[in-house]
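Re: your question from the hallway

Yes, I did run it. Sequences:
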Amino acid sequence: GESVGLHLPTLSVQEGDNSIINCAYSNSASDYFIWYKQESGKGPQFIIDIRSNMDKRQGQRVTVLLNKTVKHLSLQIAATQPGDSAVYFCAENPDSGTYKYIFGTGTRLKVLA
Amino acid sequence: ETGVTQSPTHLIKTRGQQVTLRCSSQSGHNTVSWYQQALGQGPQFIFQYYREEENGRGNFPPRFSGLQFPNYSSELNVNALELDDSALYLCASSPGLATNTQYFGPGTRLTVL
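Structure:
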């Protein structure tokens, strides 16, 4: 069935280093992808999105890369800070017109001081 | 501009009971989606409402139902509660079907005993 999965359930990174969180998606028809950050006790917070006609998009300290050939997404966080500690989800939208987003199980990012 | 709000924050029910969860969408947003997030999992799409009409549904039984009101606030109703319904219920709003970005509320934590 349709699924979005993550390779690493937990990622520990030294403060100041760059973080890379990976995600595999299964539906080749998906045309839109989002990365969300979820802190404990809060709802998911939008970080960055990318459409399927792009392979890279940059935001403030974050970059999303999309490789449609292998159905892979990654989120790069530059100069990781303690406030970046959270669970990160990628989500795909395989049904343009509705927002039936499919989320993965998430990767926990731990920033070490 | 106010964000997405949800009520109540926490709720405890017993098996077989019914529950109503509420969501106020962000100002200017006419589309609301509901998600169920079990502990340690990513959110799962329940359904979406656009201008008071259901616009897509996930793999949830009919005992999960919803409403959207003229002011675009929304309710999620769950009948005949089961233990597996224990989860964080998230509401997300977006400005309309022309944009994919969704903004999540903090969620309602439902515990079914």
